[in-house]
Amino acid sequence: MSDRQITYLTDALIITCIVQASHADNVVKAAQNVGAQGATVTYARGTGVRERMGLMGVTIDEQKEMVRIIVSQEQSDRVFEAMYLAGELDKPGMGIMFMNKLDRIATYIPDEVLAEAAAPKAKPKPKAKAKAKIVPKKRKTATRRPAKKASK
Amino acid sequence: MITEIGAFMHKGEGLRLMNELHGDDKILGIYVEAGRTEDLFAFREFGSASENDILTILVEARHATKIFDLVCGKIGLDKPQSGMVFQMPLHMQPA
Asked: Most buried residue, A70, B47, B54, B89, by most Cβ within 10 Å?
């Protein structure tokens, strides 16, 4: 790794969402619709809520899917909310989700993107203030026409 | 303080890396999961997804940078579509 450089990205969060098996695709789709790039899904087995729900617990799948999505700070709340609603986590036994702040991320970044990020940004030219011109609007006057007499 | 280092990588890489790193004294714990991903790799095996491994490593914060860079190098992050490595703090120490 001596001749290679690692670029660390910051201001990112990881959203973890645990839902019943086969519900993950809906959650991922909802996240993608609001700007998430994609997700990683793993299988898991859950316990706890099924036992607490008594007879109703049999309706809850023991098999779970765990969705992990890494998002930027700006889009985190939007993605979190979309996933929550898509997974129907407001209903009992449907699942749980949480968000963790990441210290750093590393992934492949194309050289062009790195060069662009490193280059100093050109200052935008200040726009000349346009003088506000008040143009009086012509008033439209409605004229009433006399109603035509109905011919017999 | 304990830190978690996570890595998404190609299928099979996780087990290989775990076998390589589990003897390292700085590593407190290392785990591998298998999953599917939608955005990491261009090739698709199952509809819109492809298989991947998720590696989780627990290390002390003072060793985190070294292990993080080591994992980055082992995965080969200088090539496109090789995966992603991330680090997050843990607030509870393992027993």
From this structure: A70
Question: What does the domain layout of chain A look like in residue ranges?
Answer: 13-102
Chain A residues touching B86 at Cβ < 8 A: 12, 14, 70, 102, 104-106
Chain A interface includes B45 (CB < 8 A): no
Tally the domains of chain B.
1
Residue A5: closest C-alpha in chain B: B78
Is-contact B1 B60, C-beta < 8 A? yes
All residue ranges of chain A with pLDDT < 50 are 1
Backbone angles phi, psi at A81, to 5 degrees: -65, -45
ipTM of this predicted complex? 0.85
What distance in Å separates the CA atoms of residue B49 and residue B44, rounded to the nearest whole number?
5
- Classified as helix, coil or strand, A134 is coil
- Which residues in chain B are contacts of A37 at CB distance < 8 A? 39
Is A1 at the interface with chain B, CB within 8 A? yes
Print the domain residue range for B53.
2-89
CATH class, A13-102 region: alpha beta
In a domain, B95, yes or no: no
Assign residue B18 the CATH number of its domain. Answer: 3.30.70.120
pLDDT, tens digit (0-9, with 9 covering 90-100), for A26-46: 999 999 999 998 899 999 988
The pTM for the full model equals 0.78
CA-to-CA dists, residue B6 to A39, A93, B56, B78, angstroms = 14, 28, 5, 18
For residue B54, tell me if it sits in a domain. Answer: yes
Contacts of A1 in chain B (CB under 8 A): 69-70, 72-73
